[in-house]
Amino acid sequence: MPEAPDTTATTKAGDVSKTPEGVLVAEAGPPPGKASSLWSDAWRDLRRKPKFVIPAIIILFLLFVAAFPSVFTSETPRLGDLTQHYLQKPELTHFFQPDWFGYDQQGRSIYARVVYGTRASVIIGISVTALVLVTGGIIGMLAGYFGGWIDAVLSRITDTFMGIPFMLGAMVVLVSFNARTEWVVILALAFLGWTTVARVMRGSVITIKQADYVQAARSLGAGTGRILLRHILPNAAAPVIVVAMVALGGYITAEATLSYLGIGLSDPAISWGGDINSARDQIRVAEHILIFPSIALSVTILSFLMLGDAVRDALDPKLR
Amino acid sequence: MADLGKSAGDREPILEVRNLVKHFPLTQGILFKKQIGAVKAVDDISFSLYRGETLGIVGESGCGKSTVAKLLMNLETPTSGEIFYKGEDISKLSGRALKAVRRNIQMVFQDPYTSLNPRMTVGDIIGEPFEIHPDVAPKGDRRRKVQELLEVVGLNPEYINRYAHQFSGGQRQRIGIARGLALNPEIIVCDEPVSALDVSVQAQVINLMDKLQKEFELSYLFIAHDLSIVRHISDRVGVMYLGKMAEIGSDTEIYDHPTHPYTQALLSAVPQADPEGRESRERIILTGDVPSPANPPSGCRFRTRCWKAQDRCAEEVPLLAVPERFRDSGGGAAHDSACHFAEEKDVVGAS
Amino acid sequence: MSIEPVEITPADAPGVPLLEVRDLHVEFHTREGAAHAVNGVSYTVDAGETLAVLGESGSGKSVTAQTIMGILDMPPGRITGGEILFRGQDMLKMSEAQRRKIRGNQIAMIFQDALSSLNPVLSVGFQLGEMFRVHRGASRKEAKAKAIELMDRVRIPAAKERVNDYPHQFSGGMRQRIMIAMALALEPDVIIADEPTTALDVTVQAQVMDLLAELQREHNMGLILITHDLGVVADVADKIAVMYAGRIVENAPVHELYKRPAHPYAKGLLESIPRLDLKGQELYAISGLPPSLTAVPSGCAFNPRCPLATDQCRTEVPPLVQVTEQDGTPITGRSSACHLWKETIHG
């Protein structure tokens, strides 16, 4: 321990009281290290783990691509020149050139399409997760905290939604829309996806609301709002965040699958799933149309899954 | 402290509990709940607490002592009965009036590992009472107040930004005590405050609580199962069994002149930290376990384990009162005891 | 699977203790470095004798017991030295098969938490009988009869009717009795009880300790009682080993220790017990905290909390030395690991 065992507190406290000397002996010795919250402990743990660092770098890169696609290519992804580039093979040495990954059957640069397709995947993944966290989180928290008939009603609603098969439900919902923009897909996925988060949140709130520190806050006279926001939410959040991060990869998969089936994003939106779909017919002659969006999709999903896994390990060592 | 206890009779109690009952319903069914019984955690308990004194409550697990603490803290609503704080029934208060009363009754919890929010710093934990009751300390003053409190409980004020998990059990209990003191309460309900601590640290915390009591004129309701610690800190002691008060009196009355067979068995069962004469010490070994509070025995709750039990014990609930035969004796045995056949028995005479 | 009853060659030569731990060292690997949980611990227990190992959490008292039983988690634990001699044979040098024959058969353990030590999906009768089926090759019927007999022996009422009940249907005290029955099943020579009554109420604790003492007498077993409760120790122990930060700091027969401790830690613990004649006064309190095992103070581990500590205590680890009367005659069974044991015991 770097500092000398601390006894100053004792003598100072002794001034206040009139107790005989040396009777009130503080448990000397400062706790080792600096102030560290459980979050900062987790962060320190994470930042040394390749399992976290590698996907984190990839995801940061993906976010950058999604935000500024024009930095990576000057080519427009929707412009096709059939006369010159019909199914042209990739030039793997032409880094960041429009012909790097070759061209598709409409003469569009696959490289440009992969770059611009990032946006749909990332935005849909993150937005669905955020929406799911908010709606599922609130519903789960209310059900868990208040219990009684509120819990009974909310839990039955959750069960009902959980009974709907996720993909089938999403298809049924999306088919009824003609113009399926990103927002339509986001809302459809979130509409069906919030149940897991709600359940995890409810369970975690039920455990935590019985904790002594919640009782302590209540006996101080703390109101419901303070108890929920300061005591329950920060402690219940960890498992919910983990579930949501792992689910994020699933939402990206769902979007790609729906777009592949032709009921995800509709034209003119650019989606890796849609591009994989259009590669279907040419697969024997031009496999590159399929390969590059597939790689991009796999790397993205894998990164989010790995990140979620690493975060779970850091936040809940018991699960290891 | 002992002298305060003696004069307790002619003073107004600061807290008075009258016929307190708490039954937890046992229900069946999901949508249409049907009550099929009740756990009688606390069943008609009365006692008073005077200013500056410590009332110890002892009993085994399931006797209802922790439920009493929760009822006093208004963390549970009583099924019936009253809790008077300075003459006002606080068990039916809510909202603003309840919040005002809460300032004066605070609690120290048993487990220092679960009673502090792991996501908050020590400063946030001890400062929270001021945020809830902003009139106690002006905003700019709070940090200084928190540091003062840390000093009072013997912790370095520089630790204000540390998190609770960085401290050991004894230090955490000090933090819990500092939080309890923040609002300058008059009564502190202590639910097993040292039983989760290492032996060598328990004495430190007991001394601290003793010191604070004198300094701030606190009244303690001290709930514990360790009889020697309760004797050390208490002016009066109540013994609970299965939701009922079996016996209550001053510390010498209970420890030296117990008249209830359960108290006698409890005292004799406590291992003495002194091997001398351990072979010759008389011990009352009770048979069987404590019955379930959902289905307590009729009449006297203790009769199923009592060596004195007779037919009368099964039919008639013994009242908590000074037994008739001791009423005029004026000796140590003349205190409240809920037994039809109360008699003195020296069980700790060996020590 | 071994079926026939196991006979370990009795080495009951005079002078060979039933169980002896000799200079045991156990380390744990932690994020902060190696934690020396057990640091040169030696003790012995003979047939019919009760050794109490007294210490706080982190003193190494339970780790020593786990090492004897072979239930230490390795890794992160590691035995770095020492011997565990059962009737003179070193268990650490035995083959796994030999060791397994001793554990359970000759040495059994009782844990603090009976509920988590029993399998919740099997009836207690099945779990008790299993010992006989595995170790003695008993049939299902025989095993059940044996289980009932054992439950009778630990005085569980209506054993015949309750043999098919599950652990959760028993109360805490009854579950601890079942644990004792299980430990007794194969009539071991040594029982290690790790805080057997800590989770129980006082009136039930008295019942269980009584039962344990009686069974020990009946079967002339050695008992190692691991606890932090000075009251329980005073009630049942013959001799005591006081542990602090992975070492034994004092050995003494029970009456001697309570009368005149020879180590300031033991003395402090005894003085901090509330006493009748000191009511209303401050309790004596040992200052400070037990050390973290990754940062044990240099010299004597107790020196930062010791009222007597000198420079020697801060630099030099005190060896465990024989304690003598003032005139120099050694006191049987007493030793202390304190540079100032003379001052501590004699004044």
Automatic annotation (TrEMBL), chain A:
Q: What is its main location?
A: membrane
Alphabetized, the UniProt keywords read: Cell membrane, Membrane, Transmembrane, Transmembrane helix, Transport
Enumerate the Gene Ontology biological process terms.
Answer: transmembrane transport
ABC transmembrane type-1 domain: which residues? Answer: 118-308
Q: Which Gene3D superfamilies match?
A: MetI-like
Claim: Cell membrane is one of the keywords in the record: yes
Q: Which InterPro entries match?
A: BP-dependent_transpt_permease (IPR050366), MetI-like (IPR000515), MetI-like_sf (IPR035906), OppC_N (IPR025966)
Its Gene Ontology cellular component terms are: plasma membrane
Presence of the UniProt keyword Transport in the record: yes
Q: How does it sit in the membrane?
A: Multi-pass membrane protein
Subcellular location, in the record's words?
Answer: Cell membrane
Give the stretches traversing the membrane. 52-72, 122-148, 160-177, 183-201, 236-254, 289-311
Q: Enumerate the residue ranges of region (Disordered).
A: 1-34
Q: Give the family, as the similarity comment puts it.
A: Belongs to the binding-protein-dependent transport system permease family.
Protein name, per record? Peptide/nickel transport system permease protein/oligopeptide transport system permease protein
Q: Which organism is it from?
A: Streptomyces harbinensis
TrEMBL record, chain B:
**Alphabetically, which GO biological process terms does the record hold?**
peptide transport; transmembrane transport
Which keywords belong to this entry? ATP-binding, Nucleotide-binding, Transport
Q: Which residues form the ABC transporter domain?
A: 15-267
Where in the sequence is the signal peptide annotated?
Answer: none
Q: Which GO terms describe its molecular function?
A: ATP binding; ATP hydrolysis activity
Q: Does the keyword Nucleotide-binding apply?
A: yes
In terms of domain of life, where is this protein from? Bacteria
Q: PROSITE patterns given for it?
A: ABC_TRANSPORTER_1, ABC_TRANSPORTER_2
The name of this protein is Oligopeptide transport system ATP-binding protein
Native species of this protein?
Answer: Streptomyces harbinensis
UniProtKB/TrEMBL annotation, chain C:
Q: By its UniProt entry, which InterPro entries does this protein fall under?
A: AAA+_ATPase, ABC_Ni/Peptide_Import, ABC_transporter-like_ATP-bd, ABC_transporter-like_CS, Oligopep_ABC_C, P-loop_NTPase
Where is this protein localized, as stated in its record?
Cell membrane
Q: What is the predominant subcellular site recorded for this chain? A: membrane
- Any single biological process term in GO: peptide transport
The ABC transporter domain sits at 19-270
Entry membrane topology: Peripheral membrane protein
State the UniProt keywords alphabetically: ATP-binding, Cell membrane, Membrane, Nucleotide-binding, Transport
Citing just one GO molecular function, the answer is: ATP hydrolysis activity
Q: Name one GO cellular component term.
A: plasma membrane
NCBIfam families cross-referenced by the UniProt entry: oligo_HPY
Which protein family is named in the record?
A: Belongs to the ABC transporter superfamily.
Q: What is this protein called?
A: Peptide/nickel transport system ATP-binding protein/oligopeptide transport system ATP-binding protein
- Annotated source species: Streptomyces harbinensis
According to the entry, what is the taxonomic lineage of the organism? Bacteria, Bacillati, Actinomycetota, Actinomycetes, Kitasatosporales
